[in-house]
Protein: MMPL family transporter
Amino acid sequence: MKKRMDRAWRWLAVNMGKHARYVSIVGLVITIIMGFGLTNLDFATDQDAYLNKNEQVYKDNVEYQDLFGGQAMLGAIRIEEGTTLEEFLSPKNLKIFQEIEKTLVANDSIEAVATPYNTMVLSDTLIQKAAPTEAQVKQLADGEITAANLPTQALPTTSIAGVSLDTATAAAKADGDTDEAEARDKDFGETATRLLAIPEADRTLDNIEWRKFLLYDNTGAVRESLLPFFPNPQTTQIVTRLKGNMSIELEGDAAVFTTNTIDKAAENLDPAAEVTVIGAPILLKDINDYLRGGILKLGAIAVVAMILILLLLFDVRWRLLPLGVILIGVTWAFGLAGYLGIPLSLVTISGLPVMLGIGIDYAIQMHSRIEEEVLLDREDHPIQEAAVNLGPALLVVTFDAIFAFLALRFAKVPMIRDFGLLLAIGIAVICVVSIIAPLAALGIREYKSPTSSDKDYSEGWLGRFVVKIGSLPSKLAVPFAIGALLIFVGGLLVESSLQIQGDPIDWVNQSSPTIKKIDTIKEQTKSSTELGIYVASDNVFDQETVDFVHNFAYQQRRERTFDVDGKEKPALLTASSIVTTMSGIINVPGATPKGDIPRGPTAEAVQAAWQVAPPSLQKFTATPPEASDGTSKNMNLIFRVGYSSLNDGEAVVKDVRADVRSDSPEGIKAVPSGLAVVGVGLLENIQSNRILLTYMSIAFVGIFLAVRLRSVVRSVLSLVPVMIATGMASLVAFALGLELSPMTAVGGPLIVAICTEFTSLMLLRFVEERKRHMAPQEAADTAAARTGRAFIVSGLTGVAGVAVIATSPLPLLRDFGAIVALNVVIALAAALVILPPMLVWADQEGREWVSRHLVSEEDLAVSRGGGGRHRVKDTGSVDGPKAGDGATDAPART
Structure:
């Protein structure tokens, strides 16, 4: 079997060089074909990248967006100091807001718009109009009339709001609650006095006194029903709801259109105001745009770093050849990914520099080995010898990487699974290119222009450096093994205590205009996102459903908090629905004891309010009646949230879900949905098996090596530096109290892949030298001297490939790149320093755990006598390109 494999490698080496021209042509054709595959790459930043389609959260969010639209764009309007809300909401400005709504809703990608104008119109209607008749409801639904065409009520008690207040007062009296009844009577009297002071003809939005009446309650505070749109006396909002379940590109276009429309119209506001328009669609668009350009930028930085490393440290002919090889390899890898439909995301974007860093090692190792066979061993057939000796080892380390990356396929986050598949396929493709291309290019080079030099690079400073750092006494092997195990176990014990960085705002470029806008809105409104809950029942306008929404909204606002520097802050700031609008209208200050839930509205009042609401506000709050039975089946409840961290959101969403399960009456379903819930789902998926992925990759690689190398000991020795790196990373993070980037879920398998690549090559080269009759220490020193240059260069390129991710302006990527690069440095240092003495100790006479069954008993017997380095017995050369006279005239080395 061994002889057949050697002949196959020799045949490959000969024919790649002999037919280099044809190999080049075929390679060019494949590269062009794969280049077209690059055009098929898609960029995924929507929920498909974060959640699995079979997850309930995913299904709920799709249904929610089908019912009430997608992401929201928030326009915060900050009024100048000295200007009141009623002054700012002048007829001119209200007209501007009306035009903004008309322009936006005319866009097919926009579902609905809530502006200061239509919210004021609804307040005006509820106070001046009675509940519509059945005929009027049909006319309103058909668009034949608007609420403005309904008869105006001269008496306040006959309007929708007036009837609701009167009904609540009567209910309080019927319940015998005299305190509430007296508070309501007093408040109603004050309200009636304020209203009747304004002549009926002047009760229009053109009148500042009427606007003041609509905006403020009898205490002078903004009415509770208006707080979702007027969070404080100096701020008002425009909320634009985009169509649901759109592609990220369409959503981004709609977000830009919304921003431009509001910004342009706001220039005409008088008095002027500070207008800030932002929303999750803009944030996602920024990320999507970065993915399209950022991946090339990261790749370019990695290429520049590798050029410098190769020029400074890789002292061979055609020293930039490995870079050309890896560029072809990654083109094939990403082209194949395009054909296979593997999308690019925040995680997979790092695949380019990672593949550059890992993959170039293969080409460097092959290139260096060919130079070694030419210059040091003076082989007659150096290309064949390099292929026979290194080719099988490259296949081993390729499968090391593939098995490490396949662990990512068990991640619960789709984009992490895609990343694992991308790397596994990419590394396999790169391995093929890294074997064939150097064999062809250097084979024809050595045939036409043989390398001739008396320089022994193994005596160079890189070779001496690697020998030096790996020459610790073999007696330290056992303490090293114990120390590695303790570090690994220690890291395992503290892993569960590490916190994931949970604020999505901290994941993106902190100096971007988008983040500045988000910070501005948070400062002005105390919130920049929302938690949506859709309520479904046979009829959402029946009393049972209305009571549930009313009670649930007040309960959640009162009970849900999050911690800020040891202080409890409200997690849910305001509740917005057609039910809470009416709840706010009838909630009289002082009528309800502190801590109790106020009396709720009647179902008839809530339904009437929805029927007379402007069309956009209807779309925001409930679905239209179904033709089959004339009832509405779904209602929307939106909370403005005070937190931004997904860690805080996770706790809130869990509590909300628990209350839904315990408090929902039979037949009523309440489902938390929206981006806030999607983000929590992402965090839960990351946390669920983040730790497991690293240990799965170690297990997969360990099992493969045990089978392939036919020894558990050899497998364990290869993994010792990996155990040190993974354990040390967790211990350092725990000791320093660091929050980990969510992308650390892919960091562990990356470290395993990169590090086992080096440890496997080192172990196999050690075994190869043992076959040449060298004693363990001599074999370790010779392997280090001859491969030191390649290991240092390829190690630095591997670190550089990961480290360039740290140049990303996105902290999510930057922190990940820095942490993983540091861990890789630790792992490689452990491989170069700790592995050699462990190999020597494990292979001393009487043990020979490393060489046993890989080295013949005859060769081991000779090595015990210190036979020195000899050429491995030739298994048969194949005629073809070989080194010229300049490479064979020098005496053979022993």
Remarks:
- The chain has two domains: 2-47+314-448+472-503+680-871, 71-284+530-643.
- The longest strand covers residues 72-79.
- Residues 498 and 734 are 6 Å apart (CA to CA).
